[in-house]
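User: I'm curious whether this sequence folds into something compact or stays loose and floppy. Could you predict its structure so I can see for myself?
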Amino acid sequence: LRLKRIEDAIEEDESGKKSKPPVGSVIVSVNGFKEVREITGSYTIFHVYLDGEYRCSRRYSQFADLHKRLKARFPWFQFPALPGKKLNGLRHTTLGESETLERQEKL
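Assistant: Here's the prediction. I'll summarize afterward.
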């Protein structure tokens, strides 16, 4: 199993045009979130996409658990740190585009 950050696999030519991801690559992204309110409390779920198609929604704790497992399974790979659990009172609509993209890439 090869594990490589997609950013490291994509190259730019002289004009700045980026190449396509390598064959067999899967692009995983987290695009958006939803606050869920229940009688017992509230929590946030994040929407997960594979190659641009919605696949599922997961809680932050599930991403944290996956991150921990991946680091144990691939100790040689330098994983980026997860963003903080709290959005510091900000909502998706108030984040700037660069901040939103940065958080999505880190997840």
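Summary: Helices lie at 6-9, 60-73, 97-106. The first strand starts at residue 28 and ends at 38.
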